[in-house]
Design a protein that fits this description.
Blueprint (H helix, E strand, L loop, with lengths): L2 H17 L9 E2 L8 E3 L3 E7 L5 E6 L2 E6 L5 E7 L4 E9 L7 E16 L1 H4 L8 H6 L7 E5 L19 E2 L2 H4 L4 H14 L3 E7 L11 H5 L5 H8 L12 H7 L9 E5 L8 H20 L6 E4 L13 H15 L3 E4 L16 H14 L18 E8 L2 E7 L5 E3 L8 E4 L6 E2 L1 E5 L2 E5 L8 E4 L9 E3 L8 E2 L13
Parallel strand pairs: 2-8, 8-11, 8-12, 9-11, 12-13, 13-14
Antiparallel strand pairs: 1-3, 3-6, 4-5, 4-7, 7-8, 9-10, 15-16, 16-21, 17-23, 18-19, 18-22, 20-21, 22-24
Helix pairs in contact: 5-11, 9-10
Amino acid sequence: MNPQRWILAVLLRLVASFCCPTPAIADITLAKIFTDHLVLQQQTTIKIWGTAEPQENVIVQFMEQKVETVANDGGQWSAQLQTPVAGGPFKIEVSNKMGEPKIVLSDVMIGEVWICSGQSNMQWPVRASAFAEKEIDAAGEFSNVRLFTVAQHASNQELTEFERVSGWNVTSPTTVADFSAVAYFFGRYLHKETGVPIGLINTSWGGTSCEAWTSMPSLQANEMYRPMLQHWETIQEPLNPNRPANLYNGMIAPLKGFKFRGAIWYQGESNVGRGDQYRDLFANMIGDWRANLAGGDAFPFYFAQIAPFRYGNRPTAALAEIWDAQLHVFRNVPQARMATTCDIGDLKDIHPANKQDVGKRLALWALHDLYSEQRLNKESAIVPCGPVYREMKVDGARIRLKFDFAPGGLVAAESKQLSWFTICGADGKFVPAQAIIEGDEVVVWADEVTAPQHVRFAWDDSAVPNLFNQSGLPAAPFRTDSFDLLSKGVKF
């Protein structure tokens, strides 16, 4: 072809392209929670969602399922899929009717997905926990434990998408080092006991309060929180991470629509000094999450009691009042389960290094409540926690105490006399007491209290008591009285 004819042909093709353009292919996106290596909750209906051009047809394919949907006028689309029993890897494909652009998610596992949240002891990474080097080196053995970290982001408006995330990661020495230690050890223990893939979503922020993780409508609906909300209205820090609802808005709300098996929680240090309020605030937050994320009281919520630590600017009973609030939630909120940590703390460090036992104790509740049939080793029964005070009886100058969760009896560690018991008479003044185990009871007395009325156990932020059950799990701090707390009336 001579040069003139070649130029003419090119010009004709350009004119044709303008007159009869190829149909535009709009970009289709997925929400940031959906990346390679993700875990989806098994045996349920899950939702996949994202954005596209308004009225764009979107096709989602998974296994033998092919779901067609249409983006709404705002460009939002979603599709529902049924997940099988745990297994994988699978792939998910997303495209328009022409098959373009095609998004392919690979190495998708079906298993059990858990939200892992709270403040610094949940955020605390594997690299800073006990035996860190050994734990990191062994991480490659648990590639079916998958990790997702939500970037810290406070927002004064409820968000529908995360500010930024790094995506799902396969557990390896590289990926596990900076991941939440409590979350990882919890998931690893579940995986070892069940063989099921585990997905862990770490959304935590050190030094943050319970109210920051609760939605604003839930807080505004309760008159008792009005002073706290009014207090924050005077503070010109709209993105303060401790501002009520700010972390819920930025780090929890974008999870709406994703399906979970349950949640684990490690928080309370930033609410020390407000124990009386915390019993309601914490219960309210759990209910709020269930209403917005899970749809009911059946959603398991497992939490760790914070560990002993000398809060120098607080009375020694301030931490005990948080423990008391946590015990109240355990007793009164359905499917809220508590792991006690009073024996594995560090009085000089608010961040104890032993995160392995914290994760394991939270996992014991999950194995007891949810995975009893899936356990690979069913020979031994699961005892989910240490002794929990049930009832008392005055016996002359002594008080006898009974406990739940103590199959086989109670134990004084190292065969010592029991520690950290106090007792009071009608004057309400607690004094140090002696205590021993008799059969399935603990007997408490003090020579100077001849007509005892109440007992308190581990009612001090430095208490490291030695009452356990036969499974080696510690008794939870408690009180038998209902006296006003030091924090009564403290609102913020």
